[in-house]
User: What shape does this take?
Amino acid sequence: MERMLPNIFLGMPSSRVVEALRVAQRVELAVGDLLMDEGDQDTSLVVVVEGKLAVWKGGVQVGEVGEGALLGEMALFTGEERRAKVTALTRGSVLVLDALGLKALRRAGNPVAARVEREALQTVASRVRAVGERIGALAEGSAVARCLPSKGFFARVASLLGGGGREQVAVDAAQVLRGSSFFPSVDREVEETVGEVLTGLRCGSGDFLCTEGEEGEAMYVIASGQVDVLIETRDDRVEPIARLGPGEVFGTVALIQRQPRMASCVARGEVVVLELDRARWEELDQSGSKAASWLRRSLIRGLSEQLDYANAQLAEHVGGRGAPLSRASAGVTAHGRFLEGRA
Assistant: This one.
């Protein structure tokens, strides 16, 4: 067995680790080596075994990663071209696992496949949060007087309504999933299995589904209606950053990482959503089922799109090529239509 292995293999049966290593390639790196480049069609996942790597976007270094880190999950799980450049800051080594190798492990029932998906999901969620915090520190925001509802309104409505503005309703969850761009096509059985862990909720106008700063306990898929996404920036300034509609998703990062919400999400008129709470998410995640893998990969794909958008906005701003970051954090709070740059 290899002289050094990343943490992703810890606790795995040795036979399964050996099986995984047969489909992965170890690559030694020297200082300055180019591991990935923007625009490449390569969809391999990289696990850092030793050393440090730099991540670049648009010619600007946007991050640094070390031992145990995963890179390339965006390309692996979306099938799209590389969105960032990666170079070696020090001597080191990495393990490279391509899409065919991961698929083979998944088919063989090797638990390393599920571990890779979970680690990739945690990795991209952490990066989304980190970029969001960096953008939040740079964002100028808009005066409260120009934004409705205002920051004070957040606190008043949250304390008045709490969860009392919601009622449970019957929703064809599989049909909602099928019509959402967040979730890739899959067989009906998987959609039905995932649909069984989702709860339909009807929310009244002004109900807060998420409140910025509070620990998240659930993610949501909009079945009907619209939800406004708003953030506080600094001083007495807030930003309306997105308006989401049917099929769009929010609340994923807080659910995955047990962290405070990154934004407030408010029902704009009557809204029906599908809720996935933490208990049901964890039960499905640990089930070892095809449905669990599909949902993890869907979350990775959606979060990767948010991260790519946010990194692009950040790189433009840091490089002096973009407008002030007043709404750039839209890309790190919800998967849907952003107020700037997308429709």
Summary: The chain has two domains: 7-109, 144-335. The first helix runs from residue 14 to 23. DSSP finds ten helices and 17 strands in the chain. The chain has a mean pLDDT of 81.
